[in-house]
Amino acid sequence: MTQISEHPLKDKSILIIDDQKSFQKLLKGMLLQLGANNIVFYDSGEAALNKIDKNSVDIVFIDYNLGQGRNGKQFLEELKYLNKLSRHSISILVTGESTRSVVLSVLEIEPDDYLIKPFSTGMLKKRLSKLSARKKLFYDANQAIEDKQLAVAVEKFLALAEQHPRTSQFCFKRACQLYFELEEHQKAYDLLSQILEKARPTWALTYLAQASLLLKNYDGAIRICDELLGQNRFNIDALDIKAICLNKLNQGKESLFLIEQSCNISPHSFARQRKFSDIAHANNDYNAFVKAQNTLLLMSQGTAFAHIDYQLNYIRAIFNQLEAANSQQERSELTNQIKSSLKNAQSDSTVVEQQTLFDEFKTFCKARMSVSEGDFLEAKKLIAPLTSEQSLSHSVLPDSIITLLDLGEFDDAKAQLDKYQSSNQHNSQILSQLAQRNASLADKQSQFEQYNNQGIELYKKGNFQDAIVQFEMALKIAPMNTGSALNLLQALLQLLPRANKSADVILEKCQYNFTLVDGMALPPQHAKRLEDLKFEYNKLAKLYKQ
């Protein structure tokens, strides 16, 4: 875009997204005075989203308040996420509010500029002239970013900082952002340290705190955040960084307080709500965890960020509450909340589009509710058709793993965990949760393996009675474990011919243990073994029933 001249906006493609007709007319009049001849209006972000093309927009004006649905900040965030705005385009947020929370929210998404109503044609012309000149100056650096040549872009911004000292702070800020994107945190830290030797601008202090966090210098990052918060207690970036550092230093209570405070100041940020979610889960504050996941779900609905995972993660969060519940009444209320959430999710467009996946998820939810009620056999029957399928949706592997762990099917759970972990599609937060759950069951699993292995050794020595005791102990720890149930059946059938008065008891035990494995989808080796054991059982049962 060329610098503003007699007809500065001639042939420039201009979009105005505003739900107020009166302001549309007012802004159009100003733009026409500046030579604009290509102006398009949209009443909402929803109407504009599918019409905007990256290479067809020169200037976009977005009103912060767009009525119901997403606000202007969220809409601009979507445009950037969908890569629908070129770095050469000019984005301007317009707001009638000048409150701290609105201004902070606007600045956070980094539009090229923002205007507070009312403003004059002269002010608009001055702002557009300045923005146009800046876009022209940074054209090559921005093009390098468009071409994904981030290292080249860094060099161009650093060179511009030397050539045009008045733009140095902006250029240094862009260079640091690119260093973070390139994961060259030490280079960012070194550059920021040099800048701060001469002055202490807020942005540089904030980025130095971020670099310190990424370099795991948590105490150093906290000191910088305290300096920033001393200047402005509403500095949301400083609150975020300090919260993460405190969490890393196991100061969870203060960490949660700070991140929730940050969310209250600027709630419409996916990144911030995810941090809140992570910190809440890490500190076992499941009420806060559900709150964060619900906010993420509500924020995502009807936007470009909409995804079925937000529904799944919200319901999973309620399961965390269910497992931590202390009373039957609380468990009953949370179970009803899960059922209600599953029902409500059916109308979500992301669920409708992936109904098969959601049906699988719903099955695992039913199984987990059965586990919560102590009905392990019902849970095992519910998941049997799914856990045998190689085509189980990747998104529900975490739910399958949790259910298998709860049922004591440790080997199957480990195989699925390895599969999920090795995938490029895994969610790091969920993976961390699974690792924690697996670790919490380590002692239980070790005990189970000890009893099961002792039973196998005793069986090999022909000591079937003691082997049975060990297998039964193993099944008390993991009541639905298929391998141990088959081991117990094998030992019982070996003991049966030697039994006298206890034959009826042994037959009854056999019948019960067959219910643990009958109708289940088993791997080939287990299936063959079960078939042989059934044949042996039927043969012996006939003898004792005659």
Automatic annotation (TrEMBL):
Domain Response regulatory, chain residue ranges per copy: 13-132
GO BP annotation list: phosphorelay signal transduction system
Origin species: Pseudoalteromonas piratica
Designated name of the protein: Response regulatory domain-containing protein
Keywords: Phosphoprotein, TPR repeat
InterPro entries cross-referenced by the UniProt entry: Bact_response_regulator (IPR050595), CheY-like_superfamily (IPR011006), Sig_transdc_resp-reg_receiver (IPR001789), TPR-like_helical_dom_sf (IPR011990), TPR_rpt (IPR019734)
SMART domains cross-referenced by the UniProt entry: REC, TPR
TPR repeat residue intervals: 448-481
Positions where 4-aspartylphosphate occurs in the chain: D63
